[in-house]
Amino acid sequence: MYEFFFVLIPEYMPFLLQGALVTVQISVLSMICAISLGLLVALGRLSNLRVLRAVLAAYVEIWRNVPLIVQLLVIYFSLPQLGISLPGFWAGVLGLSLNVGAYLSEVFRAAILSVEGGQKDAGLSIGMSRVMIYRRVILPQALRIAVPTIGGYFIALLKDSALVSYIAVNELLRHGTIVISNTFKSMEIYLMVAMVYFIISFISARIVAHVERSLTPAYLRVAQAQA
């Protein structure tokens, strides 16, 4: 019968939480960059510039069909051969941002198309510029539609951030691996790591749900409550 060493929890949890802080930092930064990139790519793919649409479509297809771990390894280990060297943390942010940004671009594009309809023509008919139409009419509605999906991708990004441990980023999983190399107690440590990931993801999911509710119009919240 395996004997659990619960004494490891108070001894090593502070060290694991230091790694968890890095996990949260890299995830939040990557998501901010991914949202910005995804929105720009979506707008570019809806433009009238055929070359731009083709280039952005190629980016989306390549980044969505190559494993994330391969993308991270290329950025961290291969780019220095071209004279582009990034610290592990920023290589991780870049890799995660490019990967999630490709997926979010499709989310934003679908959201924009779902609300664009005749609203663009209506805006043009009353003298609004295209920039003003998107900024004041289309994008606010599209972002509200996209929020639940964005939240789901953020939770997935939190968990995928464990892959940056392969490029020497001292996040939660790497800290757990360091502890295991010192204690040889993989069962206890991996369970502690899993528990911390669960807590972070659970809290993030609750925050996303709160944001989604706050962006839902009052009449829809009443209808959902009565359903």
UniProtKB/TrEMBL annotation:
Domain (ABC transmembrane type-1) ranges: 20-208
KW Oxidoreductase (keyword) present: no
InterPro entries documented for this protein: AA_ABC_transptr_permease_3TM, ArtM/GltK/GlnP/TcyL/YhdX-like, MetI-like, MetI-like_sf
Keyword GTP-binding: no
Record-given protein name: ABC transmembrane type-1 domain-containing protein
Listed transmembrane segments: 20-43, 55-78, 84-104, 145-169, 189-209
Membrane topology (UniProt): Multi-pass membrane protein
Molecular-function GO terms, alphabetical: L-cystine transmembrane transporter activity
Principal location listed in the UniProt entry: membrane
Keywords for the protein's UniProt record, in alphabetical order: Amino-acid transport, Cell membrane, Membrane, Transmembrane, Transmembrane helix, Transport
Top-level taxon: Bacteria
Localization terms from the record: Cell inner membrane; Cell membrane
Signal peptide per UniProt: none
Family: Belongs to the binding-protein-dependent transport system permease family. HisMQ subfamily.
GO cellular component term, pick one: ATP-binding cassette (ABC) transporter complex
PROSITE patterns registered for this protein in UniProt: ABC_TM1 (PS50928)
